[in-house]
Amino acid sequence: MQRLNLLSYNVQAGIESRHYSDYLLQSWKHLLPHPERLTNLARIAQMLRQFDIVGLQEVDAGSLRSAQVDQTLYLARQGAFPHWYRQINRNLGPFAQHSNGLLSRLRPASITEHRLPGLPGRGAMTAEFDLADGEVLAVGVVHLSLGWRARRRQLDYLAQLARGYPYLVLMGDFNCGCDSKGLRSMVRAAGMRGLDCELKTFPSWRPRHNLDHILVSRPIEIVSARVIDYMLSDHLPISMCIELPPNLRLAESTLEASDRLVSD
Fold it and tell me: Would you state the pLDDT for residue 257?
């Protein structure tokens, strides 16, 4: 288990998009349930089965539009992930539960939620996985703001968070590309790598922007990284295979299987 396969995916609450016009013509799907949603999520779950840890953005935690289905839990069950967690960032009561999600085949020792600076509704969460030498591997799932002012404050927050973890993965929808000064500044300040201008994920039907990223601390080796052509959202998923330094290995407790799903 020196190598781990990671994936980050903004699933747009199970809504398939193929054209810019879909934002208008299918806008009702962001408010009301529709029968194709679970079909799309089931197809996504099959693709997720090849990964060890998955970070999700724009999953619904169970509301009118998702037919009361907690989509993180649904993907965990369909994808056979023994551990899962979801963080509700924008709670609109019975109408929508905007969330980040984590799916894992490894047992996290702890999970911490972070409310990011700016207007309410944006968050990050960090899962800590025990390593055999007493260190931890931290995996963060993030979804940043559209506005650059709030996003710059959020990137500063993440840079500060990264200083507490020698071994860290940050993945998610950063809503900015590799040309962002704020993102580049955060990567430098946090001593991370993985920023690749060629890994374009948005829009899924004609990818021109690299809004989704997987970043790792410098001691972690990047074996490979790619965008997966799996058009079931307005974003494409991004994957990365990483390798832990030779002197590190996962603790036995991290590798233990579970016969039940673990959330909050």
Answer: 62
